[in-house]
């Protein structure tokens, strides 16, 4: 209801009683409701006049279609004359990323032991997301010349 919360509604009612008084308030409410009814009737008759002037080819015309979001949703996204849904469904990000990972690791799609597209990396390969374990006693940690 126009983003009016209960507290604001109570505040408006109290202000209306204070401004107009309890005697005039019912008459004011009747006048406001009568005015709103007349405005609604006027807008409906204007819509009907416009529909009748446009002719039979616009019999299913809705004024909500004039909203840009509704227009785009109805005429562009629902008809899909450009084949956007087919393009969107044909793009598989997981398989594309698996192919890139295979190319980086030197595994070809036809190489023996290569994982099929979309499957996780083999268990024997390096897991780059895990932290490396501590080296054994007497073993030197790996040296990274770029890090020093």
Which helices and strands, and how do they pair?
Layout (H helix, E strand, L loop, with lengths): L5 H49 L13 H10 L6 H7 L2 H13 L43
Can you offer a commentary on this structure?
By secondary structure, this protein is mostly helical. The chain folds into two domains: 6-61; 68-118, no CATH class. It is 53% helix and 0% strand. The chain contains four helices and no strands. The chain has helices at residues 6-54, 68-77, 84-90, 93-105.
Summed up:
With 148 residues, the chain is mainly alpha-helical. It has helices at 6-54, 68-77, 84-90, 93-105. Helix content is 53%, strand content 0%.
Features:
protein transport, 148 residues, transmembrane, 53% helix, TatB, elongated, mainly alpha, cell membrane, translocation
Measured on Cα atoms, how large is the radius of gyration?
A: 35 Å
**What's the rounded overall pLDDT mean?**
77
SS-based class: mainly alpha
Shape: elongated
Low-confidence stretches: none
**How is the quaternary structure best described?**
single chain
Strand content: under 5%
Total count of strands: 0
Helix content: 40-55%
How large is the count of helical segments?
4
Instruction: Give the N-to-C terminal Cα separation.
Output: 64 Å
SSE order: HHHH
Number of domains: 2
The main pleated sheet reads as: none
